[in-house]
Amino acid sequence: MKIYGVKIIIKGSKDEKKLTGELKEMIGEKGVFDFDGKTNLRELAAVYELSDLVVSNNTGSMHLALQLVLLLLQFLNRVIYIDMD
């Protein structure tokens, strides 16, 4: 991540705080931000609008990202779907 200068935002529900915290710790980079339970829908849309890539499972926020982001990597069970439009 340092080579490419990317920043990672981890987003989950308040109930997923432990999981997202563990993920951030595993990545161990300074450019990782945990927005878990800290954004409302409007704020999340603003984050997505500034994003170049969103990686998501099949959730409501994934459908929001699909409308706002150029590249979406979605996990549906074992299938990876990439929307390049």
Provide the descriptors you would attach to this structure in a database record:
3 helices; two-stranded parallel ribbon; 2 domains; three-stranded mixed β-sheet; single chain; 85 residues; 5 strands; alpha/beta
Secondary-structure topology with pairs:
Blueprint: E1 8-10, H1 17-27, E2 32-34, H2 41-49, E3 54-57, H3 60-68, E4 72-76, E5 79-83
Parallel strand pairs: 1-2, 3-4
Antiparallel strand pairs: 4-5
Helix pairs in contact: 2-3
Distance between the termini: 25 Å
Largest sheet: number of strands, sense, barrel closure = 3 strands, mixed
Shape field: globular
Structural class: alpha/beta
Mean pLDDT: 78
Give the C-alpha Rg: 13 Å
Domain count: the total is 2
Strand order of the largest sheet: 3-4-5
Q: What is the share of helical residues?
A: 25-40%
Individual helix count: 3
Number of strands: 5
Low-pLDDT windows of residues? none
Listing every helix as H and every strand as E from the N terminus to the C terminus, the arrangement reads: EHEHEHEE
Strand percentage: 15-25%
Characterise this structure:
It is globular and about 30 Å long. α2 (41-49) packs across α3 (60-68). With 85 residues, it is of the alpha/beta class. The protein is 34% helix and 24% strand. The model has no long low-confidence stretch (mean pLDDT 78). It folds into two domains: 1-38, no CATH class; 52-85, no CATH class. Strands 3-4-5 form a three-stranded mixed beta sheet, with helices on one face. The chain is built from three helices and five strands, in the order βαβαβαββ.
